[in-house]
Write a structure and sequence with these properties.
Blueprint (H helix, E strand, L loop, with lengths): L2 H9 L5 H23 L1 H16 L12 H10 L2 H25 L4 H5 L4 H12 L1 H9 L5 H11 L3 H26 L3 H36 L1
Protein backbone atom coordinates (compact mmCIF):
# COMPACT_ATOMS: atom_id res chain seq x y z
CA UNK A 1 0.00 0.00 0.00
CA UNK A 2 1.36 3.42 -0.96
CA UNK A 3 1.72 6.26 1.51
CA UNK A 4 -1.08 8.13 -0.30
CA UNK A 5 -3.46 5.16 -0.05
CA UNK A 6 -2.66 4.75 3.64
CA UNK A 7 -3.32 8.44 4.30
CA UNK A 8 -6.65 8.26 2.44
CA UNK A 9 -7.70 5.20 4.48
CA UNK A 10 -6.86 6.98 7.72
CA UNK A 11 -8.96 10.07 7.00
CA UNK A 12 -11.89 8.27 5.34
CA UNK A 13 -15.00 7.92 7.48
CA UNK A 14 -15.90 4.36 8.51
CA UNK A 15 -19.62 3.93 9.12
CA UNK A 16 -21.60 6.66 10.86
CA UNK A 17 -19.97 9.65 12.51
CA UNK A 18 -20.33 8.06 15.94
CA UNK A 19 -18.98 4.68 14.84
CA UNK A 20 -16.08 6.41 13.13
CA UNK A 21 -15.28 8.39 16.28
CA UNK A 22 -15.26 5.24 18.42
CA UNK A 23 -12.88 3.47 16.03
CA UNK A 24 -10.56 6.46 15.88
CA UNK A 25 -10.55 6.87 19.65
CA UNK A 26 -9.62 3.21 20.20
CA UNK A 27 -6.96 3.45 17.49
CA UNK A 28 -5.57 6.57 19.18
CA UNK A 29 -5.32 4.73 22.50
CA UNK A 30 -3.47 1.85 20.84
CA UNK A 31 -1.07 4.21 19.03
CA UNK A 32 -0.37 6.12 22.24
CA UNK A 33 0.28 2.82 23.98
CA UNK A 34 2.81 1.82 21.33
CA UNK A 35 4.52 5.21 21.48
CA UNK A 36 4.46 5.04 25.26
CA UNK A 37 6.22 1.71 25.15
CA UNK A 38 9.15 3.45 23.47
CA UNK A 39 9.15 6.39 25.86
CA UNK A 40 7.86 5.06 29.17
CA UNK A 41 6.85 1.46 30.02
CA UNK A 42 4.25 2.80 32.46
CA UNK A 43 2.18 4.29 29.62
CA UNK A 44 2.23 0.99 27.75
CA UNK A 45 1.18 -0.87 30.90
CA UNK A 46 -1.81 1.44 31.38
CA UNK A 47 -3.06 1.14 27.78
CA UNK A 48 -4.84 -2.22 28.37
CA UNK A 49 -6.59 -0.65 31.37
CA UNK A 50 -7.98 2.17 29.23
CA UNK A 51 -9.14 -0.23 26.51
CA UNK A 52 -10.70 -2.52 29.09
CA UNK A 53 -12.49 0.47 30.62
CA UNK A 54 -14.02 1.30 27.23
CA UNK A 55 -15.06 -2.32 26.70
CA UNK A 56 -16.68 -3.01 30.06
CA UNK A 57 -18.44 0.35 30.35
CA UNK A 58 -19.64 0.65 26.77
CA UNK A 59 -22.90 -0.48 25.19
CA UNK A 60 -22.36 -4.05 26.45
CA UNK A 61 -21.86 -3.04 30.09
CA UNK A 62 -25.35 -4.28 31.03
CA UNK A 63 -24.28 -7.89 30.35
CA UNK A 64 -20.86 -7.47 31.98
CA UNK A 65 -21.71 -6.94 35.65
CA UNK A 66 -18.74 -6.78 38.02
CA UNK A 67 -16.30 -7.17 35.11
CA UNK A 68 -14.61 -3.81 35.69
CA UNK A 69 -14.07 -3.92 39.44
CA UNK A 70 -11.48 -6.76 39.32
CA UNK A 71 -9.38 -4.66 36.93
CA UNK A 72 -9.49 -1.78 39.41
CA UNK A 73 -8.38 -4.08 42.21
CA UNK A 74 -5.55 -5.43 40.09
CA UNK A 75 -4.29 -2.08 38.81
CA UNK A 76 -4.67 -0.61 42.29
CA UNK A 77 -1.95 -3.04 43.36
CA UNK A 78 0.36 -1.94 40.55
CA UNK A 79 -0.16 1.83 40.32
CA UNK A 80 -1.31 4.75 42.42
CA UNK A 81 -5.09 4.49 43.08
CA UNK A 82 -5.36 8.22 42.37
CA UNK A 83 -3.80 7.73 38.93
CA UNK A 84 -6.08 4.78 38.16
CA UNK A 85 -9.15 6.73 39.27
CA UNK A 86 -8.23 9.78 37.15
CA UNK A 87 -7.41 7.74 34.05
CA UNK A 88 -10.47 5.53 34.46
CA UNK A 89 -12.74 8.55 34.89
CA UNK A 90 -11.47 10.15 31.69
CA UNK A 91 -12.09 6.93 29.76
CA UNK A 92 -15.52 6.53 31.38
CA UNK A 93 -16.59 10.05 30.45
CA UNK A 94 -15.70 9.40 26.81
CA UNK A 95 -17.50 6.05 26.62
CA UNK A 96 -20.50 7.55 28.44
CA UNK A 97 -20.65 10.20 25.73
CA UNK A 98 -20.90 7.32 23.26
CA UNK A 99 -23.53 5.52 25.36
CA UNK A 100 -25.66 8.65 25.64
CA UNK A 101 -25.82 9.01 21.87
CA UNK A 102 -26.49 5.30 21.33
CA UNK A 103 -29.34 5.31 23.84
CA UNK A 104 -30.57 8.52 22.24
CA UNK A 105 -31.10 6.68 18.98
CA UNK A 106 -33.54 4.38 20.78
CA UNK A 107 -35.17 7.14 22.84
CA UNK A 108 -38.66 6.57 21.44
CA UNK A 109 -38.63 2.78 21.59
CA UNK A 110 -40.47 0.68 24.18
CA UNK A 111 -37.21 -0.98 25.19
CA UNK A 112 -35.65 2.12 26.71
CA UNK A 113 -38.91 3.12 28.39
CA UNK A 114 -39.39 -0.35 29.87
CA UNK A 115 -35.92 -0.17 31.45
CA UNK A 116 -37.22 2.56 33.74
CA UNK A 117 -40.36 0.69 34.82
CA UNK A 118 -38.92 -1.28 37.75
CA UNK A 119 -39.23 -0.47 41.45
CA UNK A 120 -35.64 0.77 41.71
CA UNK A 121 -36.13 2.87 38.63
CA UNK A 122 -39.36 4.42 39.89
CA UNK A 123 -37.72 5.57 43.11
CA UNK A 124 -34.82 7.07 41.18
CA UNK A 125 -37.24 8.67 38.72
CA UNK A 126 -38.82 10.66 41.55
CA UNK A 127 -35.36 11.73 42.68
CA UNK A 128 -34.43 12.61 39.09
CA UNK A 129 -37.52 14.81 38.75
CA UNK A 130 -36.48 16.66 41.92
CA UNK A 131 -32.68 16.82 41.49
CA UNK A 132 -31.51 15.21 38.23
CA UNK A 133 -27.83 16.07 38.76
CA UNK A 134 -27.75 14.47 42.21
CA UNK A 135 -29.63 11.43 40.92
CA UNK A 136 -26.96 10.81 38.27
CA UNK A 137 -24.16 11.25 40.83
CA UNK A 138 -26.00 8.82 43.13
CA UNK A 139 -26.13 6.20 40.36
CA UNK A 140 -22.54 6.81 39.29
CA UNK A 141 -21.42 6.00 42.82
CA UNK A 142 -22.74 2.50 42.23
CA UNK A 143 -25.59 2.56 44.74
CA UNK A 144 -28.12 1.61 42.06
CA UNK A 145 -27.58 0.43 38.46
CA UNK A 146 -26.17 3.31 36.46
CA UNK A 147 -28.05 2.55 33.25
CA UNK A 148 -31.24 3.78 34.96
CA UNK A 149 -29.79 7.29 35.19
CA UNK A 150 -28.62 7.07 31.59
CA UNK A 151 -32.12 6.13 30.40
CA UNK A 152 -33.70 8.92 32.43
CA UNK A 153 -31.25 11.46 31.02
CA UNK A 154 -31.93 10.35 27.47
CA UNK A 155 -35.71 10.23 27.87
CA UNK A 156 -35.84 13.67 29.50
CA UNK A 157 -33.24 15.11 27.09
CA UNK A 158 -31.10 16.17 30.03
CA UNK A 159 -28.13 18.28 28.85
CA UNK A 160 -25.25 16.04 27.88
CA UNK A 161 -22.53 18.14 29.54
CA UNK A 162 -24.38 18.03 32.87
CA UNK A 163 -24.89 14.30 32.52
CA UNK A 164 -21.17 13.75 31.89
CA UNK A 165 -20.15 16.09 34.72
CA UNK A 166 -22.38 14.28 37.21
CA UNK A 167 -21.04 10.96 35.93
CA UNK A 168 -17.44 12.05 36.51
CA UNK A 169 -18.20 13.35 40.01
CA UNK A 170 -19.79 10.06 40.99
CA UNK A 171 -17.39 7.70 39.24
CA UNK A 172 -14.09 9.21 40.41
CA UNK A 173 -14.50 8.48 44.15
CA UNK A 174 -15.89 5.03 43.36
CA UNK A 175 -12.90 4.15 41.18
CA UNK A 176 -10.46 5.59 43.69
CA UNK A 177 -12.02 3.64 46.58
CA UNK A 178 -11.92 0.30 44.73
CA UNK A 179 -8.36 0.82 43.50
CA UNK A 180 -7.28 1.84 47.02
CA UNK A 181 -8.97 -1.29 48.35
CA UNK A 182 -6.90 -3.37 45.94
CA UNK A 183 -3.72 -1.68 47.15
CA UNK A 184 -4.66 -2.17 50.81
CA UNK A 185 -6.00 -5.71 50.76
CA UNK A 186 -3.75 -6.96 47.94
CA UNK A 187 -6.10 -9.88 47.12
CA UNK A 188 -4.59 -13.02 45.53
CA UNK A 189 -4.49 -12.93 41.76
CA UNK A 190 -6.57 -16.10 41.47
CA UNK A 191 -9.50 -14.37 43.16
CA UNK A 192 -9.32 -11.48 40.69
CA UNK A 193 -9.04 -13.90 37.77
CA UNK A 194 -12.05 -15.89 39.04
CA UNK A 195 -14.12 -12.70 39.17
CA UNK A 196 -13.10 -11.92 35.57
CA UNK A 197 -14.08 -15.39 34.36
CA UNK A 198 -17.40 -15.43 36.23
CA UNK A 199 -18.39 -12.08 34.77
CA UNK A 200 -17.62 -13.08 31.19
CA UNK A 201 -19.27 -16.49 31.73
CA UNK A 202 -22.42 -14.64 32.76
CA UNK A 203 -22.18 -12.46 29.65
CA UNK A 204 -21.92 -15.61 27.50
CA UNK A 205 -24.95 -17.11 29.21
CA UNK A 206 -26.93 -13.91 28.61
CA UNK A 207 -25.96 -13.99 24.93
CA UNK A 208 -27.08 -17.62 24.54
CA UNK A 209 -30.29 -16.94 26.43
CA UNK A 210 -31.01 -13.98 24.17
CA UNK A 211 -30.52 -16.11 21.05
CA UNK A 212 -32.88 -18.81 22.35
CA UNK A 213 -35.45 -16.20 23.32
CA UNK A 214 -35.41 -14.50 19.92
CA UNK A 215 -36.11 -17.72 17.99
CA UNK A 216 -39.65 -18.37 19.31
CA UNK A 217 -40.47 -14.68 18.96
CA UNK A 218 -39.31 -14.70 15.35
CA UNK A 219 -41.34 -17.83 14.60
CA UNK A 220 -44.48 -16.31 16.14
CA UNK A 221 -44.08 -13.19 14.06
CA UNK A 222 -43.62 -15.19 10.85
CA UNK A 223 -46.68 -17.33 11.61
CA UNK A 224 -48.88 -14.32 12.24
CA UNK A 225 -47.75 -12.57 9.07
Amino acid sequence: MSVHSLAVAMVRRHGSRLDDLILRAIAAVVVLGILGLLLDPTVAALTPFVLYTLLTNGPYSAVLPAAYEPALLLYGQLFSPLLIAALGTLALVFIEWVNYHLYGRARDTHTVRNLTAGRWAQGLTRMFEWRPFLAIVFCALGVVPYWIARCLSVLSRYPLWRHLTATALGRFPRLWAIAALGMTLNPPRWIVLTAFLCSFAFAGWMWLFGRRFRRPVTSLVSQSA
